[in-house]
Amino acid sequence: MPDLESNQKPEQGGANDVTWGFKILGRIIGTLAAAAMIILGLMTMIGFSGSCLLAGILMMAFGGLVIMIEAPIFCQYFQWAEMVTQFVDNRPYFLRAGLYLILSVIPFALCQSVSSFLGCGAMFVAGTFYGVIAVGKKGEKISYTDKNSSGGYIPLIDHQ
């Protein structure tokens, strides 16, 4: 009899402590940022320089990639899109944050226009949000048991 638990998809490698609300909010922010990047990438391509044309093409391609990662329902007819989505979903959130931050910097470095700033800025916000999710609640794991042994203030000079 096969083990049913082994067939279940693992959740976010190392990010099991993230609430479902933050997961959904991250998907919504990522999807909206990708849509903004696609639309504003088209507007960036209208510029008269070759670097802005390349930046617009990259923005549209990167937006399509992020749509495929965040909202796979839009790419359900492509079999390879499901593999990409599962690959990214099985990784920790800090890798997704780094990917989104890199994808937002490259087109803006090529063309500094208002439309590329807004589109890449939206993707940068999504990457920053995933970075905040990756950091999580690390500050609550510190225990302050003894003030004197854990670096509490001990006066060196005795004022009498």
Tell me about this structure.
The protein is mostly helical and 160 residues long. The chain has a domain at 41-137. It contains five helices and no strands. It has helices at 20-44, 50-70, 79-89, 93-110, 114-135. Mean pLDDT is 80; it is low at 1-14.
* Structural class by secondary-structure content: mainly alpha
Per DSSP E runs of 2 or more residues, the count of β-strands stands at 0
**Molecular shape:** flat
Uncertain ranges: 1-14
Radius of gyration, Cα only, in angstroms?
Answer: 22 Å
Helix content: 55-70%
Number of helices: 5
User: Main beta sheet: strand number and arrangement?
Assistant: none
Quaternary state reads single chain
Averaging pLDDT over every residue, what do you get?
80
SSE blueprint:
Elements: H1 20-44, H2 50-70, H3 79-89, H4 93-110, H5 114-135
